[in-house]
Write a structure and sequence with these properties.
The protein is mostly beta strands and about 160 residues long. It folds into two domains: about 1-70, 3-Layer(bba) Sandwich (Hepatocyte Growth Factor), CATH 3.50.4; about 85-155, Hepatocyte Growth Factor, CATH 3.50.4.10. About 10% of the residues lie in helices and about 40% in strands. The chain has helices at about 20-30, 105-115; strands at about 1-5, 10-15, 35-40, 50-55, 60-70, 85-90, 95, 120-125, 135-140, 145-155. The strands form two sheets. Strands 1-5-3-4-2 form a five-stranded antiparallel beta sheet, with helices on one face. Strands 6-10-8-9-7 form a five-stranded antiparallel beta sheet, covered by helices on one side.
């Protein structure tokens, strides 16, 4: 996701040999402990060289023109109930963001790795939230409410 930093939860960092965020992503993919990564472009906040940060958690995304970040997506995180399509979880929001792609698993993965998150709701793009997809993380597990534009879920 371009123009996004995920500060904190770093387990490794390095200067890739080329200014290419895909090298950070590949490093994360090959590291069992990695859950997310951030690439910092050269000649920005960390000097003249590109820099890669490998993370053992999924810090919340922060806007930052210097950075590109990504997360590993667990298809079915062990600590989560199955995703519910066409249901919302109203209220108890403590964080929200626009995920980089139209995939509710990104929202589910954010909740699975965040200790404060008890439930989540993903609003499909081009519907009630506007042109972009949107994710809400919740610090409680509200009851499910039917809504064809939303997918949601909760932790065990």
């Amino acid at each position: 996701m371009g123009n996004i930093d995920r500060p904190g939860q770093d387990i490794a960092n390095f200067n890739p040999p080329q200014p290419n965020p895909a090298m950070c992503e590949a490093s994360c993919a090959g590291n069992n402990a990695c859950k997310a990564w951030t690439y910092v472009a050269p000649n920005t906040t960390q000097g003249p060289l590109p820099h890669c940060w490998i993370k053992n958690g999924i810090p919340l995304p922060q806007p930052a023109a210097c950075c590109t970040s990504g997360v590993k997506i667990a298809v079915a995180p062990a600590n989560m109930f199955a995703m519910q399509g066409a249901f919302d979880q109203l209220g108890a929001d403590f964080a929200s963001f626009d995920p980089p792609t139209d995939d509710p698993r990104l929202c589910q993965g954010e909740c699975a790795e965040n200790g404060s998150c008890k439930a989540w709701a993903y609003v499909a793009p081009g519907t009630i939230q506007g042109p972009l997809p949107h994710c809400y993380l919740k610090n409680a597990a509200p009851g499910a409410t039917p809504n064809e534009n939303v997918s949601s879920g909760a932790k065990h």
